[in-house]
Amino acid sequence: MPLKKHQPYTPSRRGMQTADYSVLTGGPVPKQLTGAKRKSGGRNNQGQTTARFRGGGNRQRYRNVDFLRREAGEAEVVALQYDPNRSAFIALVRYRGSGALSYVLAPEGLRTGDIVQSGERAPIKPGNALPLKNIPDGALVHNIEVRAGARGKLVRAAGTYAQVMAKEGARCILRLPSGEMRYVPAEAYATIGRVSNVDHENIKLGKAGRKRHLGRRPHPRAVHMNPVDHPLGGGEGKSKSGRPPCSPTGVIAKGFRTRPKGKAKSHLVKDRRAK
Asked: Which CATH number fits domain 221-275: 3.30.2130.10, 4.10.950.10, 1.20.58.100, 3.40.50.300?
């Protein structure tokens, strides 16, 4: 999907690039498919900041997207809509049998009027969900379950996809967007196609105010802080004091892997991604 460029009638509009929402059809948002979204501002239940530089932003309602994709029967795409809670677009579908409405992640190329379905006998078509054992090698998939029936948790961001590389008995080997080769149960479901809004990574917000609308507060650089606030703070001029880049708590940011060696599901990783 192409990006939309703006006329520079203000300094903030010069160089601004936003997603072209002409592919979206909009339409009403069913209340039964939404819920309240309460923001924490990066604080935990004790009021301590655990995620810095968060707060404010426009009010949002959460869209209950169906990541499980287990409902049988054909469903017609009624509308393609913007979701403020994720980078990808979502599709509002209506099941022909029951008439129920549901939200699903919209793959690239999906249009209103298309038919999507789930199940072991579903055809290999973008938007259809079926077990990995029934998906041919080389196919692009997204919304992947790590355990059968545990709903899709992998590859859900805009423009991302995983590729089915091979099958070994009850397991399937996938190449994730990071380059990591990972084992996934062959009974787990995945959705055919690449996630929509491919050009999301090329968006340029253009001004600080749009970042505040998204709930992101200013992010000052560490070298501008005082030593009491960050290990890189202090010094005369732009001084890092010879210290390697690190987090506020001193964890090294480059050349040091922070993933725990005993992390659960580490045995499912066939090949790590490149550094």
From this structure: 4.10.950.10
